[in-house]
Write a structure and sequence with these properties.
With 247 residues, the chain is α/β, with parallel strands linked by helices. The chain is 30% helix and 22% strand. The chain is built from seven helices and 13 strands. The chain has an eight-stranded mixed β-sheet with strand order 3-2-1-4-9-7-10-8, sandwiched between helices. 40% of the residues are buried.
Length: 247
């Protein structure tokens, strides 16, 4: 059994056509899904998300995820999903993305395999790049980046992320879960379509600058597991130093 938690901020106008529509397309029951919002946006979400449970949480991505963990039962399975995921897919070759045949089964299997290998965190390929995903090991349980847009975790409540690192909180979660369990599980042939740093969301306005500052601070804190990367557009990011083990 699992629960789907969608933290959302300032996106009441798009969540219905993005993540909720994606889950509906794959036949995920509404009673499995809870949307977590801030108090001042509760009525807006109630209006645009009829039939879904809307819960008033707190502002801030790290803080909201912590609220969600405390809201669900200890040791329950939580699938965290961003509010603007437009689709999920399986990579069958270097150019082809196919819809998942059964999302409910995939999520259930993700938690089952996570438990089997002794991990408490699992995820999917972090970027929409069929060629790279196809070349990757199908399933890995070493150190690999578990993107915050779509991941499952056992609700152990013993991992505490650094406040103020919201834009790179998934990197720190990856590292801390890896240090806790000696592994994280990633399904490298499954990916998602979303737009990182889209308008709205749980970050501040000048998110790229904030992201750079947070990236530099996190690399300094975890130099063994992270490195800075400057992209072609000058955007400064931090990357997990991947160490994949094939299952």
């Amino acid at each position: 059994m699992y629960h789907i938690a969608i933290p959302s901020y300032n996106r009441s106008d798009v969540i219905g056509s993005k993540s909720l529509a994606t889950l509906e397309k794959y036949g995920i029951p509404k009673d499995k899904i809870t949307v977590f919002v801030v108090r001042e946006e509760f009525l807006a979400y109630k209006k645009t998300c009829p039939g879904y449970q809307i819960v008033i949480g707190v502002k801030g991505l790290v803080e909201q995820r912590e609220f969600i963990e405390n809201w669900y039962d200890l040791d329950s399975n939580i699938l965290f999903m961003d509010d603007d995921v437009s689709d999920l897919f399986f990579v069958s070759d270097a150019k082809t993305r196919q819809p998942l045949s059964n999302l409910n089964q995939f999520i259930s299997d993700g938690f089952a395999q996570m438990s089997e290998v002794g991990a408490t965190l699992w995820g999917i390929y972090p970027v929409d790049n069929a060629m790279f995903a196809f070349k990757s090991q199908e399933i890995s349980d070493g150190l690999s980046y578990i993107v915050g847009a779509f991941y499952g975790q056992k609700n152990t409540r013993d991992i505490h992320l650094t406040k103020g690192y919201g834009t790179v909180e998934d990197r720190e979660r990856t590292i801390l879960r890896y240090l806790r369990d000696g592994k994280v599980l990633r399904f490298n042939k499954v990916g998602l379509k979303t737009k990182y740093f889209a308008p709205g969301g749980l970050m501040s306005e000048d998110r790229q600058k904030i992201h750079q500052i947070a990236s530099e601070a996190l690399v300094e804190k975890y130099p063994t597991f992270l490195r800075l990367k400057i992209r072609k557009n000058g955007y400064v990011d931090c990357q997990v130093r991947t160490k994949l083990n094939k299952i």
